[in-house]
Amino acid sequence: MVLSDDAWLRLTAVGSAGYAAAGTCAPRQMIKTFYEPGTPELLPPLRYFGVAAAGITAQALTLVNDKECTEKTKKQFLKINAGMWLAAGALTTYHGYTGQHKKSTAYGVGGTTAGIGALMMFDACKGKKKSCCGGSSKIPTPEARK
Questions:
Q1: DSSP for 94-130, written as a single string
Q2: CA nearest 85: which of 121, 42, 59, 49?
Q3: What is the pLDDT of residues 45-86, one digit of tens each?
Q4: Once rounded to an integer, what is the mean pLDDT over residues 135-139?
Q5: Given CB 3.0 to 4.6 Å as the disulfide criterion, which of 16, 41, 49, 131 pairs with 23?
Q6: Rounded to an integer, what distance in angstroms lies between the CA atom of residue 146 and that of residue 130?
Q7: In angstroms, rounded to a whole number, what is the distance separating the alpha carbons of residues 101 and 93?
């Protein structure tokens, strides 16, 4: 295990909170940091992005602080969030490659984001005798299928 489930949830909350603050409170600075000059106006979409990131922050913190939250629920949430981190990393890197994002920030941010997603998915999918999708990792025999 790289980190505990609660540590991953806290990391997701911190990362999402950072994007939420940048997207809602400082979208112009975010544009200057990430995007190449001449990129179409992005203020309204970035603000909506910030609101969505704030929602992810709230969800992660709710799961960390809910004493009745099961390990299975946390694992499922982590798998979803790991997928989002991986997709965000791939998209950021792609945008750097196509010239929409500044290469100087896109490759570093994209690689770091994808790395976080990969490690989170690794931890979220680890289990005793269960596969990542919740089923048994063993192939059932024909007799067991009856």
A1: HHHHHTSB-HHHHHHHHHHHHHHHHHHHHHHH--SSB
A2: 121
A3: 888 888 988 989 998 999 889 989 898 999 999 999 999 999
A4: 54
A5: 49
A6: 21
A7: 8
